[in-house]
Amino acid sequence: MPALLHPFYPVVPDLSWIKRLVPLGVKTIQLRLKDTPGDERKRQIETGLQICRQYDATLIVNDHWREAIDLGARFIHLGQEDLAAADLAAIRAARLQLGVSTHSHEELETALAVGPDYVALGPIRETKLKKMKWQPQGLERLREWVETAPVPVVAIGGITLEFAPKVRKTGVAAIAVVTDIVADRNPEQRAKDWLRLLTPKQ
């Protein structure tokens, strides 16, 4: 797995979640800002990076590769549309580690062509957070990705704490968690439970 990626990482919609979760021991967190104005987007990424450095954690910036480069991030995650529009030479020159979302064999081929550091497959199960045009991928497809992709694979989409052991058995490098954290009545405790399950034993 790319350096500094933890087997569990939440994907969160704004800076407030970084402030809540990283002090608990979350070591990798992905910031997925949507419809956030430019100055505010930069502020949230910059502050998120500062918090993560303070706690020896890793921030993955979703989509906004220009800000990631300007602010000295180490990880960027791109969807397929963002991948097509991104300046990959600039991303590589900045030594950003790159993750790419995939939902099909064709998208996996597209992702691997740019030499990513890891790929994500999703949604593994039906997800309630956002409407997906892709059907759930399931564990067999996930296992196929793990066995055939030449880079680490991250599972995402509809994965609950209770379902996570089945996902782990496929050999994935990490599980990215969205709804099971941000929609829980006690996100902090839920994050602690995830960390207890997925933190490698020393």
Structure description:
This protein has helices at 15-21, 38-54, 65-71, 80-85, 88-93, 105-112, 138-148, 164-168, 179-182, 187-198, and strands spanning 8-12, 28-31, 58-62, 75-78, 97-102, 118-121, 153-156, 174-177. It has 202 residues and is of the alpha/beta class. The chain has an eight-stranded parallel β-barrel with strand order 1-2-3-4-5-6-7-8, surrounded by five helices. Helix 2 (38-54) links the parallel strand 2 and strand 3 (58-62). It starts with 7 loop residues before the first strand and ends with a helix.
Percent of sequence in beta strands: 15-25%
Q: What is the helix fraction of residues, given as a range?
A: 40-55%
Total beta-strand segments: 8
CATH fold topology: TIM Barrel
Task: Give me the secondary-structure category.
Answer: alpha/beta
**CATH top level assignment:** Alpha Beta
If classified by CATH, what would the architecture be?
Alpha-Beta Barrel
Output the CATH homologous superfamily. Aldolase class I
| Overall average pLDDT | 94
Gross morphology is: globular
Count up the helices: 10
Radius of gyration: 16 Å
Largest sheet: 8 strands, parallel, barrel
Task: Give a short overview.
The protein has 202 residues and is α/β, with parallel strands linked by helices. It has a single domain, classed as TIM Barrel, CATH 3.20.20.70.
Task: Set out the fold topology.
Layout: E1 8-12, H1 15-21, E2 28-31, H2 38-54, E3 58-62, H3 65-71, E4 75-78, H4 80-85, H5 88-93, E5 97-102, H6 105-112, E6 118-121, H7 138-148, E7 153-156, H8 164-168, E8 174-177, H9 179-182, H10 187-198
Parallel strand pairs: 1-2, 1-8, 2-3, 3-4, 4-5, 5-6, 6-7, 7-8
